[in-house]
Structure formats: structure tokens, C-alpha cells
Amino acid sequence: MNSTTLSAQLNAAFVGYWNSGASGLGADLSHVVAYWQVFHITKAVAAAVLLALLVLLGVRLWQLFARSERPGARAAYATLGVLGAPLAPVVLLILLANIQGAVAPLSSVLSFLDHGGSDPAVAQSLAQIGEALRTGALNAPLTALVDDFRDYHAVLAVAATVTGIAIIGTSIALLLIRSRRPRDQRRARAVLAGVAVTIPALAFCFAVLALANFSTTEDTVPALTAFFGGDDL
């Protein structure tokens, strides 16, 4: 299913869901959401495999750097290691985003709703939703949307927190490994120290991401109002 087909199916299904007045998604919207959930699960698995391969490759490159006695080879390994290092955090972010979408696929797929006004039925539904959010008159469908949107951000907040803690733990573990290496293994100790000192910066970035999403979790309605006003998720 391409994005155009997905958007068309979503528009019709979402209007039916909103007009039903029920909290249940209904068959049409459930079908779209289930498809989008499988899409995210597939991407999450692929990202996890790629991340594991990148980590293993990175470890191997720095091991070769530490053990090589040839200056040219060491320079090549170091260059590959430095140039490839940013790939892992990018893939990690992709993994977290797809975990988020897999757990809360409804809020994720709503980014494909027509916000341009070309579909009158969708435009009318969005206007009614925006008004209900501003006045606090939440019916059953809208309450379900708010709950799912809260879950959507809570998942990323928790995932980012766990990731940040894991990064700090990895940094500490690397420093401990370094402390046990003989002092004559200078290059190996230098690599371990360099990675251990560098990666906490990633933990800070994930802490910021977690705080931003925890904030949305605590005060969900304004964020959902902004989304239905046309802003992206």
C-alpha cells in the first residue's frame, strides 16, 4: 500500500470512526491501523538487526585499530570507525520511532490524514475535533484519541529513558574494562576511554527527548490540538 492509497483509506475510515460516536475503531479504521502496526514492527526488526551489525562492525574496527602495527592500516581503521560512528545513533533513533509506532499505531498513522482541506468530510471532522479539544467536550472517540496520543508519547519517553540509562551503563562498563587492561596496551585503553567519554553526550540527547515526551504525556490535549490544527505529530 503506497502513501496515497493509505491516506485515502485512512480519510474515509477516520471520518466513519468520528461520526460513529463510539470509542471502538470500527472495521475500516482497525484495518488501516493494523497494517500500519505491521509496517512499524517490520521496520523495527530491520533497524534492530542493522543496529546490531553496526555495533559489531564498530567493535571489530576498533579492535583492529588497537592491534594493528601498521600506521597506514591503523589510519584506515580509525577513519572508518569515526565516519561510521554516527550511523548507529541514527539507526537507534529509527528503532525507537518504530517501536513507538508499533505500540501506538493509531496516533502514528494519523499523520497521513488530509490536513489540506481537499477532503470536505475530513476537514469537517477535524474542525469538530479541534473545537471539542478547545472546549473540553470530549466524546468517546476523542477520549480514545487522547489516550492513544498519550500512550504514543509515553512509549517514546520510556524508550528514550531506558536508552539513556543503557548508554551511561555502557560508558561505565567500558571504563571498567579499560581499568583492567594492562598499561602497555595503550591504543586499546585509548579507544575504550575515547568511546566511554564520548557516548554520554548521546545519553544527554535521549534525556532531552524523554523529557519532551514526558511533558506531552502529562499535558496531552494541547499537543493533540496542535496536531489536529495541522501540525505534524
Topology, element by element:
Blueprint: H1 3-20, H2 26-67, H3 71-84, H4 87-103, H5 105-109, H6 120-135, H7 140-180, H8 186-198, H9 200-218, H10 220-228
Helix pairs in contact: 1-2, 2-3, 2-4, 2-8, 4-7, 6-10, 7-8, 7-9, 9-10
Structure description:
This protein is an all-alpha fold. 83% of the residues lie in helices and 0% in strands. The protein is built from 10 helices and no strands. It has helices spanning 3-20, 26-67, 71-84, 87-103, 105-109, 120-135, 140-180, 186-198, 200-218, 220-228. Helix 2 (26-67) packs antiparallel against helix 3. The chain is elongated and about 75 Å long.
Cα(first) to Cα(last) distance is: 21 Å
Uncertain regions spanning at least 5 consecutive residues: none
Mean of pLDDT: 86
Largest sheet: none
Contiguous helical run count = 10
Tell me briefly what this model is:
With 233 residues, the chain is mainly alpha-helical. Helices cover 83% and strands 0% of the residues.
Task: Kindly list the characteristics that best describe this protein.
0% strand, mainly alpha
